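fyi for ur records
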Amino acid sequence: MTEADAGQSPINMRDSRTTVFGGVNKVAAVTLSFWIGKVLVTTIGDLSGDALSISLGLGYALALLLAFAVFAPLLLAQLRTQRYVPWLYWALLLSSSAVGAEISDGIDRALHWGNSVGTAALLSGTLIALAVWFMRRGTLGAGDVRALADERYYWLTVVLANSLGSALGDLVGDKLGVGVLGGTGVNAGILALLLAIYLTGRAPGGLLFWAAFVVSRVPF
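which gave:
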């Protein structure tokens, strides 16, 4: 899903002060292989987050610090490079999923806000990030990020969306009691609905991309 069909905005005409990559796209193209890879790395990231906080008994605060300690240098390297580097992009996406899992679990179990409140808070944060991004830049970066300003918004939204996906998976599992297999079925159903909407061409591709990004995961 891309946002090419969403129309062009004058804000999209970025000047040379903000376009720092020579017109080169810095993120993975949105293809079927992208979604397969995204599901895999998100699942591994979720499991890694659980391993840090639960299996190793580090607790949510320390586990979040460790996950962020891996994420931060990868993000810095990604922002500094001037081209798409596949291994760096996917390593960063994986680490962002681990950070997201720790944020989600920390809100629920360390802050004791509960799944419902945590999911609502992360949903609000994700929507606010997308709204600010679009208002300031005129794009939602679905598979096409060519300026540093957009790349910063992209990775902020990735972390929030991964956190939301983790929280939503826990919420569905707790409220419906469907387990991992049932939760995966729910997510697959939502993805099928989003695909059907996308094929009609009546909804912004960027919003559909981020909605699919949230639920394209195995909800451990």
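Residues 23-215 form one domain. thats all i got for now
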